[in-house]
Amino acid sequence: MNDSQKTILMGNEAIVKGAMAAGVQFVACYPGTPSSEIGILFSQIATNNDRLYFEFSTNEKLAMEAVVGASFSGLRCLAAMKSFGVNVALDSLLPFVYTGSKGPAVIVVADDPSCHSSAQSEENSRGFGQLAHIPILEPSNAQECFDFTCLAFEISEKFNIPVMVRITTRVAHQRGIVEFKVQSSKYKVSEGEFVKDKNRFVTMPPRVLEMHQELLDKIGKIREFATQSEINKIYREDPSVNSNAGIITSGVSFLHTMEALEMAGLDIPVLKLGFFYPLPEQKIRDFIRPLEKVLIVEELDPYLEKEVAAIAKDENCRLKIFGKNILPEVGELNPALIAKAAAELAGVSGYEAPEPPELSSVKHVARFCTVPACPYWRVFAAVKKAIPENKAVFGGDIGCYMLGAGPPHNLYDFLFSMGSGIGIAHGISKAAGGRQKPVAFIGDGTFFHAGLPALLNAVYNKSNILLVILDNRITAMTGHQPNPGMGKTGEGESSPEVKIENIVLALGVKPENMKVVDPVDDFEGTVKALQEFYQKNEVSVIVARRICALLEKRAKR
Amino acid sequence: MDKTFNIVICGVGGQGLVTLLNVLARAAFIEGYDVKTSELHGLSQRGGSVEAYVRFGRRVWSPIISKGTADLVIALEEQEALNGARFAGKKSVILINRFQTPTLSGDASFEQIRQELTKVSEKVFFVGASEICQKELGVEVVSGIYLLGYALHNNYLPLKKENVIEAIKKTMPEKFWELNIKALELAKQSTK
Ligand SMILES: Cc1ncc(C[n+]2csc(CCOP(=O)(O)OP(=O)(O)O)c2C)c(N)n1
């Protein structure tokens, strides 16, 4: 089949279609909003399909490493994760860019400006371009999600380097019309074979320094490729008008910019960059040369603005650069903000955004599910009953149970990144010389992701923390992805379940310091266990095991 | 239609905003318009305030709707209408489902909501969608589609009904077609 289709797709769906069109054979994902649909869709495609291998890896570093291995074995690969996932995977991403890929490899990363569905930080993964020297493409709409994913495979294949496709919430969860070709893959997964090539895959010094140089040379070549590329393009260029102002932008900011210029009725040429790293330097030079002023429209950090400033120094040193001086560095952008900035750039007396009406603000606070009732309601009720809240220190972690930070629970005293609750609780335990009792919470998914080394460290270094593992038998928050505790792989096959209590004991927690409870059927037993374990002076663990109510309801259907 | 038509859908997570968004976007696509939408997923959506945008017209750039530019606001929960109405102006149509769920952070009464909204627009309509759907169809999850029907039958939405029905068929599994089409038609009876 090779038919052209036209339909409405979500950005994440278009990325999956793009990868399929590029003949992807091997996909490893770790869920995280706003990237999660990518894994869910690949998981469906890979079920009973010998042309695609898919796994939900236990964490992002493992997804990255699976892709490295498959790429070294010649397969066409993709990994997808959210912004924070790259932090976890980074240790293996850096050397991968050094060795380069063999089979093409594409890493999709979804950022979340405004933190619509993220805690922790308002991370900007564009920074990894400079840090890792990984080429980065930035699609703005669903069509480009498809096109740029195909292009990313092409670049990776041509230059033997992994390529990042960086999207944001308003791209991942944007729907729009996409024209694309479907074709069934000509490849089989079993085609992979690792052919020994130590010079290529072993990053030991002094070879690693040569690799570093080779990487920089490669980036030079990709920069030339970027300069020729059609995905860096000027819009609203009117040769009859001698504009002294211009705008440079990329990603969803480009869409907001075009909207803004229409709203404000301004005619300003816009250079849209599809490549964020390496930047098509010559194109930027040519664009800014005749200008007196330029506005850089980008969300979060002024990475692009600084690059343009550096280029302008020798190209057009009188160029006035506008950017973060008139646009916010925190939170996502929108057309109204940009319209105002563009009016300022053009020197026309202010664009007036329509005044929003004055209304009282209401906010529905996110909460554990009520129909059907989430078992976490009972866990937190038991904690409140069993443990003196003013005395204990409560550590949160990442998952649905984060909601314990908000009303009506207001429980956590700190909350960081996946798996960090145990590590930080341990630090507090040691700092207070055992005078304070940290109680940390972690879900089954997060425990598998990053909890194991943390618990090992706490036990071995003689901490006194009480750890409550909320085992709802699934990675729930990101859309119910399977994890090693529930006996299903990403391709829907069964695999032996890993028992959390066995891991806990293997990590050195004493059997008398470990208990499994059901917080719904045995609420009183849960309260009692919490009361008893709270008194212990060693690391103790309560596994509160009760299936996610939504999952249970679905299973019954 | 020259100007882009902007629809803001607001409610609380779990009320089926995305289903409604999908039907609207598909119907506009079938009619030959350019379409863009934006929605949010994840933790803050679990029972929390949510907003989604549907935009269609000759050429649509941004997926986001700017304050004061919504043509139609559909509030699936009464209090959330106060959030949705930030996107409204004097000429906007605001359709509100007469259904409330507690915010856990200070609730607004029906009377307060009504008073504030009538200052925003002249076309504010409170519709007992949840109650009617529960009574007539035995389920309230289709109240969004009911409101869509209400907008269609009153000419508040520049789309053809047959295209909306086609969109329901394209975006939902077959077992839900009948129920949703019924909800759409049911709204005809409450047309003023
Ligand atoms: C490094 C990183 N990867 C992914 C995410 C996205 N994420 C948020 S919660 C979560 C899973 C939580 O699963 P679990 O601990 O089982 O808790 P549940 O939601 O089931 O209560 C994930 C993957 C993240 N915040 N950080």
Gist of the model:
The complex is a heterodimer of chains A (557) and B (192). Chain A is α/β, with parallel strands linked by helices.
Fill in the keyword field for this structure.
heterodimer; A: 557 residues; alpha/beta; Rossmann fold; 3 domains; seven-stranded mixed β-sheet; five-stranded mixed β-sheet; 19 helices; 19 strands; 17% strand; globular; B: 192 residues; Pyruvate-ferredoxin Oxidoreductase, domain 3; six-stranded mixed β-sheet; 6 strands; 36% helix; binds thiamine diphosphate
Task: Give structural notes.
The complex is a heterodimer of chains A (557) and B (192). Chain A is 39% helix and 17% strand. Chain A has 3 domains: 4-228, Rossmann fold; 233-346, Rossmann fold (3-Layer(aba) Sandwich), CATH 3.40.50; 376-556, Thiamin diphosphate (ThDP)-binding fold, Pyr/PP domains (Rossmann fold, 3-Layer(aba) Sandwich), CATH 3.40.50.970. Chain A is an alpha/beta fold and 557 residues long. Chain B has 192 residues and is of the alpha/beta class. Chain B has a single domain, classed as Pyruvate-ferredoxin Oxidoreductase, domain 3 (3-Layer(aba) Sandwich). Helices cover 36% and strands 19% of the residues of chain B. Chain B has 7 helices and 6 strands. Chain B has helices at residues 17-30, 81-84, 110-120, 129-137, 143-153, 161-171, 177-186; strands spanning 5-12, 34-38, 49-57, 72-75, 93-97, 123-127. In chain B, strand 5 (93-97), helix 3 and strand 6 (123-127) form a beta-alpha-beta unit. The two termini of chain B are 25 Å apart. Strand 8 of chain A pairs antiparallel with strand 2 (34-38) of chain B. Bound molecules: thiamine diphosphate. The site of thiamine diphosphate has 24 residues of chain A, from helix 4 and helix 16.
